[in-house]
Amino acid sequence: MTSHRGFTTDVVHSDKAFGSEDGSVHKAIHTSTQYGFDKVEDLIGVFQGTKKGAYVYSRQGTPTTAALEAKLTQMEAGVGTVSFASGMAAICGVFLTLLRAGDHLVASRAVFGNTNSIFGTLGDLGIGVSRVDASEVEHVAAAITPATRMVFVETLSNPGTQIADLEGIGRLCRERGLLFVVDNTILSPYLFRPGSTGAGLVVHSLTKSICGHGNALGGAVVDTGLFDWSAYPNISEVYRKGDTRQWGLTQIRKKGLRDMGGTLSAQHAHAISVGAETLALRMRQTSAATLEIARYLEAHPAIAKVYYPGLSSHPQHERAQKHFLAAGWLLSFELKNADACLAFIDRLQLAVKATGLGDTRTLVIPVAHTIFWEAGAAVRAQMGISDGMVRLSVGLEETADLIADLRQALERA
Ligand code: PLP
Q1: Is there a domain that residue 263 lies in?
Q2: Number of domains composing the chain
Q3: Which domain holds residue 75?
């Protein structure tokens, strides 16, 4: 679904395109769990697949989640979306509904901690996972086996800001008939559309950039329409019907929502939908602020290293410039004196000491002691996460205020 209008124009008018109820300009919050039918044949038709597009039971979606899904499909220029209760539910939905015992997955080593944890679960279920340095396509190519079905990367890894070789991996997957799945949580479709580099599925934690206000959990899987599902062996016979571009999402919706039940609530779908309306404004503001903060930190004598793709010192800076509209709001850095890291964070007065990302408020966290604690020292070393690494999720405060706060906290570091 492509449009010639601007990104935000489409987003703010998306609900209207879905049909206005009583003149309401927002899609209403539909709380009904049951949907009734005048005729029993229609109810039977829903179960037997002859009546399409009807709501039946809210575990499989509501008019409110459907309106958000249409908005996300438009934002990623895809062919369909399934929403979930959280980003992790969306990621599990992809892995658990599309992979089977004996299959193999190639994944970037630089991924969010809980995604990394799920790779262990996949191993327990008999699904092989090879973790590679995905910044160069050669490493991905070398890990592919005859059992490989899927390649999984994050566009901009959390917390190390590594950028996978998106173009190279997209090409490789196309040549080998593999499904390329990209977690686009951090950048959002305003800054980058993974479909432009060949991703077949895009996953999101909607909790972050797209909702943007730290007030709702959500996740989504968007199909870009680029992958040929008719050649994918794991689609059940029952879902091999109609438009082949919908086969993957149909299986994800039936297995991931109907059977596993990780459904997004209508209330959260509404909050995310409203948050999405200001996505472009927030991404422009936070990207500009984060670049200024990154430059300030890079020049500071107490700082050893800054990880931000907007800086020319970043190893994939040129890749970011080529593919991304701007470098986003995620920034990590290391203090020269790693032992001073916790006291430095305690001295910050504006940044909230909290896990989570993509809020209107700036959030700060020591990475090794928290989100990567359970992973253990060996995995942290492999992922390049030092004991002194600090992650910043830059919010909407005035940039000068954020820099003043960092300055006073660094004075004694
Ligand atoms: N993917 C990425 C890149 C994330 O950073 C996160 C959470 O931080 C998730 C997925 C999981 O999302 P959620 O917290 O909505 O389950």
Answers
A1: yes
A2: 2
A3: 7-276
